[in-house]
Amino acid sequence: MVSRDTIVHIASVTIGLFVLALVEYTGIGPETGPAPVAVFLLFYGLVLGGAHFYLALRGDDGMIPVESRWRYVATLVVLLAAGAAIFYGGGRAIATIPLDSLGYIVLVVTLVAYLLTESMSGYRASRQG
Description:
- There is one protein chain.
- By secondary structure, the protein is mainly alpha-helical.
- The chain has helices at residues 4-26, 35-58, 66-89, 99-128, and strands spanning 93-94, 97-98.
- It has one domain (4-128).
- It has four helices and two strands, in the order H-H-H-E-E-H.
- It has a two-stranded antiparallel ribbon with strand order 1-2.
- Strand 1 and strand 2 form a beta hairpin.
- Helix 1 packs antiparallel against helix 2 (35-58).
- It is flat, with a radius of gyration of 18 Å.
- Keywords: Membrane, Transmembrane, Transmembrane helix.
- The chain crosses the membrane at residues 7-25, 37-57, 69-89, 101-117.
């Protein structure tokens, strides 16, 4: 039997592919301007986080606790935003720190914090049960 999580993930990926097909069909121009980054963020946001976001909003535990889903979605948003900042940053700087270097620092710190948080949460859950 197919789980609810699987059905929601399949729907999320299907919507993401529909967005790509719609962009291609309408000729919005993903080759020029800011469109490629917006399409990238929308597609990967839907594919990687859409199902978790939907299930977290509904409060469905399923196979993953709701708190973990929210942490995953928050991490994904930060990673996608940092990626966009790196892409758009170019040669810009904040104070004397290049924006792309700052973006990479945010990426690494976010990933390490996410892994530590999820590890500690999993450890606590295993100790309680």
